Amino acid sequence: MLDIRSVSKSFPGVLALDSVSVGFRPGETHALLGENGAGKSTLMKIMCGIYQPDSGELTLDGTRLQLKDYHDAIRRKISIVHQELQVVPMASVAENIMLDKLGQFSRGSVLDWKRLESEALCYMSEVGLVMPPRTAIGPLSAAQKQLAQIARALSSGARVLLLDEPTSSLTLHEAATLFALIDKLKEGGVAIVFVTHKLEEVLEVSDVVTVLRDGKLIGTEETCCLDRSSIIEMMIGRTMTNSFRGFLPVSRDELALEAVGIHNEFFDGISLGLRKGEILGLYGLVGSGRTEFAKTVLGEFPRDSGVVKVMGKPARIRSVYDALHRYGIGYVSENRKEEGLILGDTVTTNIAITIWRRLSRLVPGVFSPRREEARSREMIERLEIRTPSSRQTVNRLSGGNQQKVSIAKWLVADCAILIIDEPTVGVDVGAKEYIHQLIWRMAAEEGKSIILISSDMPELISLARRILVFKEFRIVGELDDLNETARDPDEVGRRIGEYLA
Fold it and tell me: What pLDDT score does 368 carry?
């Protein structure tokens, strides 16, 4: 259906794609894989008209395809769900889903809201987005916004559907709904291009795998001929092994962070404690309250009553700034684009912003750009952030490298307590393992206390030594024996599922 032939694309200082050729067939899910910066997103953007290739050509149904822009691609029934959230915050869910089709619901200069919302509701139902279509999209979670983006792509009636990390913010339940939808679309002859860093998903839903590395095509294989190890070797040129990480020296009696009887617009008396040196996992479906709890502790959502304690003493936290500078608490947001980064500023600025105050104190009243640059370069090397320069603006980096920057700014701050929300969203398999090792070492070797919020159950089972299960803004279950004996991941997953049933 859609053929890419010898396509190349360069940006200043970077050869993003080097003579790549690949074909996509109707009724097939084609996984497009590679590390961060391998060229996946660039190729996707060429396929939907956002970028034009420097050389090479695209053909659709045997006819040469020259796309001027994304609207041109939509007219050709090619649609994309971007990795980065792209919504109009002040508009409703229905308006965001029908954004490029509003003219179809107008009578003269007046929109037929009832018909627009009715049609949007159909696509919301398909992706499992349960809420009134008039709900403002701005306050929704990253996962809910992601589902709205998927619904928007479906509403265009695409024949070629490009999914760039569509499950990055989704739990297993929401991902299962999406995979069932993919199967339905395949039966209708839709060609699906699927970019993900979750290899379990690749093996579950894809028919064909294409791997890119450093802008070059490494190979295309039928999924049935591959396993996890062979895919990883194609992606990074070496194999990796997963093993039990061990146990943590957790103090059962000493709490680093405690929330007692929290009441506000979300919670009715919720309480939990984070033990010193512990990795505490929070799991739940979209809208279960995990992120809202974190933001309540950090003062973004006000409390009507209840107490937050740090190291046993009541804490007055009104903002992330307070949390960092008064109590040594860091927060890696799940939504890096809107909350975690200053996209138009440099890598150095984004990494060092959490230590500006500290750098100014070294010589009172004097800020040291040299020390700022040195600490930023240290983190760039430590997290292997792919950037032409520390002065590159963050919006020019790939999504995965943006995520590394978002994590780096809290690592450089050396917080005693970290709340990490979806740490490996959009991160490739090699970097994901590195981040997992980093989180583990912070707890095991440095004694840091970590709340890990994740929709990636294998990630949570690998790292957390206690898991709390959230449902409808309540804690409905606790797995408190994960640090006492090695557990079968399938057993842990089954127990979590029982709490959510």
Answer: 72
